[in-house]
């Protein structure tokens, strides 16, 4: 059990948890920065979490839900107020309703996570500030302490699992729900470099090509929210051509961009793609949350070998763009 002390201060409405780990600060920080890792311990053992958004930057948000043994779901969110990589981050944390919107009937909290090096590894200190003594007592009665201890009790196993989150792993797709998939890959480059590579047409035409044997003759990038984009690819022998178009829905450079996407010429609703970039050990973690209109379309797209083509592109990005930056 990593928790070494738990201290409550009813006068200040605070709860302080200190936990020590036999790993470097950078490894512990990445466990909170990477949604794939965070969901391995954010919920209690019986209520595992899934993150559908995790923007670890000032002003960014995280959305998640926990699923109980009987299928009941509990949703939550937090908003990043401060982020100092490998040192501290501060969030406003609250409950959400079934739509994911903040549940104003429940209290929100302010949480500060501090990371520091120790003789044997690293220490994380979490100070939770409640809005009142009544809200503090309410959440404790709801099982907050038991849930926190159960959740944090899973961190040791996660930190020991280096293979699953190594920076040299290839592109992977994780099913989050019947209509949502999260695609992840760590690339060797800074967040700023990776962001530029996703928004500079000349760079995109060098790496965003999928399998060998294709070019990208059309790359019209959306510059601001509300703008449309259009990308087209063509086989070297001119035998095949296809493309996608959509709209830039949200943008917070250099860490988040949300777009709609539809294959050119295809009828019906398309997908919503949420790109998030976060600095981790080894480079930048690229996470793309794709929301499909139906499970059938999700399965059809995944069955085309989508992740294989994305991996070829990301490897090319590292080799031909970021290595030369």
Describe this structure in words.
This protein has 325 residues and is an alpha+beta fold. It has 2 domains: 3-165, Alpha-D-Glucose-1,6-Bisphosphate, Chain A, domain 4; 172-322, Alpha-D-Glucose-1,6-Bisphosphate, Chain A, domain 4 (2-Layer Sandwich). It contains 9 helices and 16 strands. It has helices spanning 25-33, 35-38, 133-141, 144-152, 155-160, 191-199, 201-207, 295-302, 306-322, and strands at 3-9, 14-21, 49-54, 61-67, 73-84, 88-96, 109-118, 121-129, 172-175, 180-187, 214-220, 228-235, 241-252, 256-263, 271-280, 283-291. It has an 8-stranded antiparallel β-sheet with strand order 1-2-8-7-6-5-4-3. The protein has an 8-stranded antiparallel β-sheet with strand order 9-10-16-15-14-13-12-11, with helices on both faces. A hairpin with a 7-residue loop joins strand 14 and strand 15 (271-280). The longest helix has 17 residues, at 306-322. The chain is globular and about 70 Å long. The chain starts with a strand and ends with a helix.
